[in-house]
Every structure is written in structure tokens, then in C-alpha cells.
Specification:
By secondary structure, this protein is an alpha+beta fold. Helix content is 39%, strand content 26%. The two termini are 33 Å apart.
Length: 155
């Protein structure tokens, strides 16, 4: 039986990245077409397009999933019984958490195009990471989904 999901988010790349990819593709096509001809330009541009599509799909395909049993953030997964305090961080607090106040042992799932994060402290004595820091577009919703049943939200 499938466990119902209480939160799901895909960390897809923003539209501005696709605009940059199109500009790079046009530049590639022009740079190859002028000296080598339109066939070579089209072939090289098609290869560059495939590389962009594959890279953006892999990087932007990262998901955050919360269900009754687990938290999955990217490739990492942890049982909810090991989760401690959860903090939704925005603005200056998020910037400090991902910068000067970040613990080198923490598990990080960050994206440069997402400013807000959720810090999830761990209660697993065997885990060397003191917390997970997860980039998200919806920090309050993710933090609420990670709260134990019946616990008040700490926003």
C-alpha cells in the first residue's frame, strides 16, 4: 500500500536559465555555421541542445517529498522518527544559514535560484550531519509538512 504524500516539490530550473540556454545555442550555431557550414552548425547545435536538456532535467528534476514515514530530499532519505526541530528560513536568516552559519557536516540540498530554505535538525546519533538544509520555494509549507502530527507550527 502506498503511503500518502503530504508535500511534494520539484526544484525545476527557472525560465531565465532556459533563456540563457537558447542564447548559448544561438551563439553555438552561429560560431560553427560561419566557418563550417549550416550542416555542421545544426549538428553541433543539436548536440548542445541535448546536453542542455539532459543537464537541466537532471539538475531541475530534484524532488522533495514528505510522507508519513520519510523525508526525501534529492537522493537522500531519512525516516521521520529521526527528525527534530524544523525551521523555515527566509531573507537574511536563510542567507546566513547557507553561508557564514552553515555547519560543514550538514546535508545540503541547495539551488542558486532558490533563496529560502528549511533547516531540519536530526535526532539520529549515528548520523554525522547535525541537520539538513533544503532549498524550497515554499518554506512554510515544507516546514508544516515536517511537523509531527498534532504539533503546533513554529512559523
Amino acid at each position: 500500500m502506498a503511503v500518502p504524500v503530504s508535500y511534494r516539490e520539484r526544484l525545476s530550473v527557472p525560465a531565465s536559465w532556459w533563456i540563457v540556454a537558447l542564447a548559448a545555442l544561438a551563439t553555438t550555431w552561429m560560431s560553427v555555421t560561419v566557418p563550417a557550414g549550416p550542416i555542421a552548425g545544426s549538428i553541433v547545435s543539436a548536440l548542445v541542445l541535448i546536453a542542455f536538456l539532459a543537464g537541466y532535467q537532471r539538475y531541475g528534476g530534484t524532488a522533495i517529498v514528505v510522507d508519513a514515514e520519510r523525508l526525501r530530499a534529492g537522493r537522500a532519505s531519512i525516516e521521520r522518527t529521526y527528525l527534530g526541530e524544523v525551521e523555515a528560513l527566509t531573507g537574511e536568516a536563510a542567507r546566513n544559514a547557507t553561508g557564514r552559519d552553515c555547519d560543514a557536516r550538514a546535508y545540503l540540498l541547495l539551488r542558486p535560484y532558490l533563496r529560502d530554505v528549511v533547516r531540519v535538525h536530526l535526532n539520529d546519533p549515528r548520523d554525522p550531519a547535525p541537520y539538513w538544509l533544503i532549498a524550497t520555494r515554499h518554506p512554510e509549507r515544507l516546514a508544516a509538512a515536517l511537523q509531527p502530527e498534532g504539533a503546533p507550527s513554529s512559523q
